[in-house]
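This section describes the prediction task in plain terms. A model, or a person checking by hand, is given the sequence of a single protein chain and must write out its three-dimensional structure as a string of tokens. No templates, partner chains or ligands are provided. The sample shown here is typical of the held-out split.
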Amino acid sequence: MDGGAVRGCFIGGVLTGFHQAGYDYRYWDRYVGTSIGGTSATYFVTDQIGQGMRFFTHHMPVGFVKKLLGVIPYFDQHYLEHAYRHSDDALSVDTLKRRKQEVWMPLSDPRTGQSEFRCLNREADPP
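The expected answer:
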């Protein structure tokens, strides 16, 4: 599942449509996403469809994407972490860890700059 705000939102909408059509997270065994595509997959696998849609309609445009000097868009990583962990729409890490369906995302090590695909279900504290 693609990264990039618009593509990730599209994927979130597709997964919501699958859910509404009766296909839940158990339909597939493995989900692979980059950036916001991985977020879409995680909300789907944790069965937090409503929270995922609010993430895209509220948190993305209101708190995460901001404009520097009123013109240049930038992404507020601190807000993003807050939304994932502490907002009413926070991802349920406990639910993710109980699922047999795997969610894979590339994670970067800030010390080395290296990225590798990791299974979020197995991470001690998924970022």
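For orientation: The beta strands are 30-32, 65-68, 72-75, 102-108, 115-119.
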